[in-house]
Specification:
Blueprint lengths: L1 E6 L2 E4 L4 E9 L5 E8 L6 E6 L6 E3 L7 E6 L4 E6 L8 E9 L4 H4 L7 E2 L3 E6 L1
């Protein structure tokens, strides 16, 4: 079992930045790829970014590519998502998730391939 807790969400003006954190506990955090997804009101949950279990590869959705960075700190059992140049369309509940041994985009961008999820953190971008 892996428990995930997100933090760092909030209200920010367009053009600003946020860093979301996802702290994991339970089973060996380093064995899991970490992903970030988001869900806006009335929309389906969508992939945002992912980092492989060994941290050597990252993937991003086109909507955030070039203005976001996913990273992880194994010593702190924490994954991060930094998003810059925020736009109102980034407004959503952001969720982190853990996938055992995940290495490839064809699984990392699929929410149903993740075993564990956090409770979500709200990000609201005002125009």
């Amino acid at each position: 079992q892996v428990q995930l807790v997100e933090s760092g969400g909030g209200l920010v003006q367009a053009g600003g930045s946020l860093r979301l954190s996802c702290e994991g506990s339970g089973r060996t955090f380093s064995n899991y790829a970490m992903g970030w997804f988001r869900q806006a009101p009335g929309k389906e949950r969508e992939f945002v970014a992912a980092i492989t279990w060994n941290g050597d590869t990252t993937y991003y959705a086109d909507s955030v590519k070039g203005r976001s960075t996913i990273s992880r700190d194994y010593a702190k059992n924490t994954a991060y998502l930094q998003i810059n140049s925020l736009i109102p369309e980034d407004t959503a509940v952001y969720y982190c998730a853990a996938q055992p041994g995940g290495s490839y985009l064809y699984t990392l961008d699929k929410d149903y391939d993740y075993d564990y999820w956090g409770q979500g953190t709200q990000v609201t971008v005002s125009s």
